[in-house]
Specification:
- The protein has about 425 residues and is of the alpha/beta class.
- The chain folds into 2 domains: about 160 residues, Periplasmic binding protein-like II (D-Maltodextrin-Binding Protein, domain 2, 3-Layer(aba) Sandwich), CATH 3.40.190.10; about 200 residues, D-Maltodextrin-Binding Protein, domain 2 (3-Layer(aba) Sandwich).
- About 45% of the residues lie in helices and about 15% in strands.
- The protein is built from 20 helices and 13 strands.
- Strand 1, helix 2 and strand 2 form a beta-alpha-beta unit.
- It is globular and about 65 Å long.
- About 40% of the residues are buried.
Amino acid sequence: MKRKFLLLLSALLLITLATSFAAGTQETAKAENQVTTIKFYGSDGAYNHNIIAKFEAENPDIKVQIVPIDFDNAEQIIKTGIASNNPVDVSFFWGSQISAFVSSGMATDLTPYLTANNNEWMNTFVPKYIDAGKIDGKYYAISYQPVIETLFVNETVFKENGLEVPKTWDDLLKVAEVLKQKGIYAIGNWSGQNHQLLVFAYQVMANNGVLEKAASGQLPFAGPNEAPGLRTALEMLRDAYQKGYWYPGEGALTATKDQVQAAFYQGKIAMLFDAGSNVGLYEKNAPFELGVAKFPLVKADGYYAVNVVTNALFVPINAVHKEEAIRFMKFYTSEAGQSETMATGRLPSIKAKQDKIDNKLMQDLMNTTTGDNVVSYRHMQNISPEINSYLQNDLIGAVCAGESIDSALAKLEALRLKAMGK
């Protein structure tokens, strides 16, 4: 009897252990099945991999898959994914140009997340940077880095030739002529980003007191009452191009990024126009003394216009994993995430990191945004996607290639009227 009892007890214990093991196995499988993979359209750079590794360590239920970005075709690629109902969950784009997605209903309103818990997330940002992604009072993009339009300078070239970095456009033309005689181009800028040279137009607008109205499309771009700025800037840039100051002379309008950057490193270009977000790249690769400077002023002692363009993240309207995407974006813009971006020479967008910049070039870059004569502006590209495309891809190149300024501005004005519903 006792033996039967022991056998029965043993059987019950085995059943219990087997059941517990099966249940544990099921729970483990269930937990593994609950890991969500989100797709992130962004740079495949080391800093992003570092951010993702830290995020996944703190959020084991989420995996982040990078879809490497094509900056030159980003807008079209993102829109194609959204339209085909196969979007990424988190996408890079420029905060100040997010209207390209908002106007077509392709971006998620992130305001509720920013303003939750008495604006907890919102209050971590420098206001002008987070506001870059705001349209009609709502936030659609989360800025993680200001992209300051910058003049990178080969300080060695200037010192060896006894020249000073130009502070006005007239100074630039004089310096450019001296450098030309020595086989050096004053200006470096590549096809696809010529629109950033419109900073000279924004300066004229600022000095004429029409910056905000003109940049938001409230003033005509052509005709007897046209806003000042665009015509002046186009005349300036066409003049510099025709005089051969713009690398590599003939063909400057189609020069690629790789060609222009290589020429800059080789000492063939004295001043390179590019986004300040690349300061770490140039500091690492330039074999000469590198500096950063403000764009030359179009009017001595006049206003200096500084953009509020930002690198940002947004969530496509039909993203599958929105809540997980928000968690990733919050980490990306946290102190931990911003530390990784700053380590590669990228400026921060949050208050907690603004006073922790210890790199001299980065400090000099931030200093180009300060001063009594500095005014901020939003790009005219925000007026409409069509204007964005025309300014970014066609306007300056067309004028320098021979199209009349009247004709080019008339095309831009037609796009403005369309955007204004007129």
